[in-house]
């Protein structure tokens, strides 16, 4: 969303003395963000995947899933094809905005546990299952993967002639598949929890592959980094927007071939905005 000059000045006046605001709103996205886009060898936009231009019937999105850890956890021989791709975003909002915003995909139904789908591209699809709105588990602090799986299978049964995007929140925190908290500072413990959370969600993704016919791609909206020391103090932890670090933009692209579905297009839906801000706060985006 565009921020006008008047709003920007108001925000600066309000937060002028806040180090966290300068770090998160200026230092990370603009100084570090510009540096990582210009530094030789770092992934840029010219070779990034535009997911709607790719050939698939179902796309399963694992939120914040790094390609290298996906490769460690998953048996890649189970797929008909695998490669790493470069995402258009290092944050869900960027991934959504740059792939879908302002477009019309009347041939696609989106099943989403992530509020950014509706916030950034709520009118881009034939239909959106806004699971973050009415299926959010208050105790876990996230939409659980069995809910996403069940909704995806139901969506295909209801709309068998549409492409299907299924957006799980895992392995993004909170780590519901591990006893490790996603706020732990110890690096080894953090990545153990992250891997366990990825292992937790994978069987639900496999259920979709087995239940929904067509060519399926398993990918991610962005990756993840875990910073400590000075890097953490500078705000380089997690998955900040505008950063083109390999750990943030290199994502898996695993393909399962199957008998193709016949896809038809239709009218896109209207955007809705209820509860979005609250859910973004629950997930740690705000």
Automatic annotation (TrEMBL):
<feature type="region of interest" description="Disordered">
    <location>
        <begin position="264"/>
        <end position="286"/>
    </location>
</feature>
<protein>
    <recommendedName>
        <fullName>Sulfatase</fullName>
    </recommendedName>
</protein>
<feature type="compositionally biased region" description="Polar residues">
    <location>
        <begin position="268"/>
        <end position="278"/>
    </location>
</feature>
